[in-house]
Specification:
alpha+beta, 24% strand, elongated
Length: 671
């Protein structure tokens, strides 16, 4: 009985323990269920966070993703890819057809071919193309992908990304345009920059400087210094000291193709704790400015020389006026006719020299007339031989040729300028050949030079010198262009020749060979119908009635000579050396039939004097005299004015007065 009771107790205890175990298991199960739910929730929450972060990252990076099941043709797009393609995730279903429909029509075949190639080869590739957004804009994208294969190596799925690169492309394009504009601005302004690294002594050049100097992007200091024309290289090296107070500098350099020029450099040191680590400099090509400054200086010098030449010519002409008058008086009274003729010829020759001075100074108008080319060249050759020296042999061949219509002094200048150029081309001596002949210019040759066909006189100037290279030939008629060193030439010689020939309605040709010499051919139209200059004009007829002449000349000797000439012509002369005194005489002793006045005088010039007197006598004939000559615009506003350049003889004076009075209807004053 006791044993049975003990068993019952043990059974009850085991049942109780079993119950407790079940309760604990249930509790554990409840706890496990609770823990599982919490893990699921946490896992779900973590997935949602990651998904949101991924979508946000795609949006920020403008990268959309896609998955394409090749076998089922199902396609999945991310939200960002929908936005890139311009589709609505709710309305538009992702598909391969929809994907290709968004591709720009011009790029569609290329994208399709790339996709087919990728599937066929199993090798993915990156491709850039355009898509048409639903808002009408065109966007640029870059697509990349990868292929997923099964155990047999077959493509089962393709995944990839589509990145919107429109902003990047626009930024690159804007940067490219900015760089291009900056480059154009640098080219237009002739500006470049360089960066000198002090430690390595390397120099980086901007694109503009690279092209200008014909160098690469990087160059050594020694390589750049080699481009500085000696002796300035050492000076530049001394000035190029990397310090805070680096100063601008200008010097002569040799650009690409050995072209000489000038640069203005503005350097600035880059400091690090008071130590210069680099130098950045703006480099400006100032070659054009320097040349313009030199041309301006040359022009100013030429202007000053012209003014000096005009002043000298004016004074000489007044002196020659007195000599001419005295010679003509001697010619009447003296038995030594030959000696007097020599004086007159010398005076006329000196007058020709002063005319050259006045043409050089542009104080005298051209006097084109019919000119015997042979005689003019013969006179010019005397001056040529005297000018070019003994080192050059001068040969001449002056054939008979018809006259040409040109200013004789200008013709002499043409030949002399060409002769001087020929001399400079023969520094060690040679032969200069000057010739003239009559030629016929046909229509083809005339059209090439924009002149009329017909008979011309060809004046050739040939040398056996160095010849002219092609680059110089292209520019040699440009004003101020010269191949000579500074101070050795103005660059005006050939441009003056070209202008003078064109003014005479002719043209100029040349041929040259390096090492074998140059030939210039000046062709001027023939004028056979015109009489040849140089024929002595007949003496003026003495007027049948005397005229009262008011003579105004500020040079006493010239005034006496003119009064003597006018008296020789039979006129009654009242002479004054001051214009204001002449005005008083007009009002006191007038009227007069004729005013003969010098142009340049103190108190008032001849034009002002004539205008003053014409207020009282509007029809007063005026003979205007000048030692400088006249330009047409100086007297164009006054009618009834004849001009005469000093020096002149009695015949020329009488002829001028007769022409003036024949063209006037004012009554003569009885005397």
């Amino acid at each position: 009985m006791q044993s049975q009771g003990a068993d019952d107790e043990r059974t009850i205890a085991l049942q109780h323990e079993n119950l407790q175990l079940r309760l604990r298991v249930a509790e554990l199960e409840r706890r496990l269920v609770r823990l599982g739910s919490e893990a699921d929730i946490a896992l779900a929450e973590s997935y949602a966070v990651r998904q949101a972060l991924l979508l946000e990252a795609e949006r920020i990076a403008h990268v959309g993703t896609w998955i394409w099941d090749v076998r089922s043709n199902d396609v999945i797009w991310s939200d960002e890819l929908y936005r890139i393609l311009g589709y609505d995730p709710i309305v538009d279903k992702a598909s391969a057809d929809a994907f290709f429909a968004a591709v720009h029509p011009e790029d569609r075949d290329r994208v399709a071919a790339a996709s087919a190639k990728t599937i066929g080869s199993g090798v993915s590739q990156q491709i850039d193309y355009r898509v048409q957004h639903s808002d009408g804009s065109v966007r640029y994208v870059s697509m990349d992908g990868a292929l997923l294969l099964d155990d047999d190596g077959e493509v089962v799925r393709a995944v990839g990304t589509v990145r919107d690169v429109t902003s990047e492309r626009e930024a690159r394009e804007a940067s490219r345009r900015e760089a291009a504009m900056r480059e154009l601005a640098e080219e237009a302004a002739h500006v470049g920059w360089l960066h000198h690294e002090v430690g390595t002594n390397e120099v980086s050049l901007s694109d503009a400087l690279q092209r200008r100097f014909g160098l690469g992007k990087s160059a050594g200091v020694e390589e750049l210094l080699a481009r500085v024309v000696a002796p300035e290289a050492q000076q530049v090296l001394e000035l190029w000291q990397p310090t805070r107070d680096m100063q601008p500098m200008q010097f002569c350099v040799r650009f690409a193709q050995d072209e000489l020029g000038y640069v203005y450099v503005m350097p600035r040191a880059v400091m690090n704790d008071d130590v210069a680590v680099a130098v950045v400099a703006v480099v400006i090509d100032v070659s054009e400015r320097v040349m313009l400054e030199r041309q301006l200086q040359q022009t100013q010098k030429m202007t000053a020389l012209g003014e000096l030449a005009a002043s000298v010519a004016h004074d000489i002409n007044n002196t020659l006026m007195v000599i001419m008058c005295a010679a003509e008086c001697l010619e009447v009274a003296s038995t030594e006719a030959e000696e007097v003729s020599d004086i007159k010829r010398a005076t006329e020759s000196a007058a020709g020299l002063t005319r050259r001075l006045l043409l050089f100074s542009r104080q005298s108008a051209l006097d084109p007339r019919s000119v015997d080319v042979g005689e003019t060249l013969a006179e010019t050759l005397v001056l040529v031989r005297r000018t070019i020296g003994d080192i050059v042999t001068v040969e001449e061949k002056l054939a008979d040729a018809p006259p040409v219509h040109v200013d004789p002094v200008q013709l002499q200048q043409i030949v002399l300028n060409l002769a001087l150029n020929a001399r400079d081309a023969m520094p060690r001596g040679g032969t200069l050949r000057i010739a003239c002949r009559a030629v016929w210019v046909d229509e083809a040759r005339a059209a090439a030079s924009d002149v009329e066909p017909g008979e011309y006189v060809e004046i050739s100037v040939a040398d056996t010198g160095l010849g002219i290279d092609a680059a110089t030939q292209a520019r040699m008629f440009e004003p101020f262009f010269t191949t000579k060193e500074p101070g050795r030439g103005t660059g005006l010689g050939l441009s003056t020749v070209f202008g003078a020939v064109k003014q005479a309605k002719g043209f100029i040709e040349f041929s040259s060979e390096l090492g074998s010499g140059t030939t210039f051919r000046v062709l001027l139209p023939a004028h056979r119908e015109l009489s040849v200059a140089g024929v002595v004009a007949p003496a003026a007829e003495r007027p049948t009635e005397r005229r009262r002449v008011l003579l105004v000349e500020d040079q006493p000797a010239v005034a006496r000579a003119l009064a003597l000439m006018l008296g020789e012509l039979g006129h009654q002369v009242v002479t004054h050396e001051r214009p204001l005194a002449a005005v008083e005489s007009w009002r006191r002793d007038g009227p007069f039939d004729l005013l003969v006045t010098d142009f340049m005088m103190p108190e008032m010039n001849g034009l002002s004097l004539a205008e003053t007197l014409r207020r009282e006598a509007p029809q007063l004939p005026v003979l205007m005299l000048s030692g400088l000559g006249f330009r047409p615009e100086q007297v164009a506003h006054l009618s009834g004015v004849v001009t005469l350049q000093k020096p002149f003889g009695v015949a020329q004076l009488g002829g001028a007065i007769e022409r003036l009075l024949r063209g006037h209807s004012s009554p003569r004053n009885p005397m």
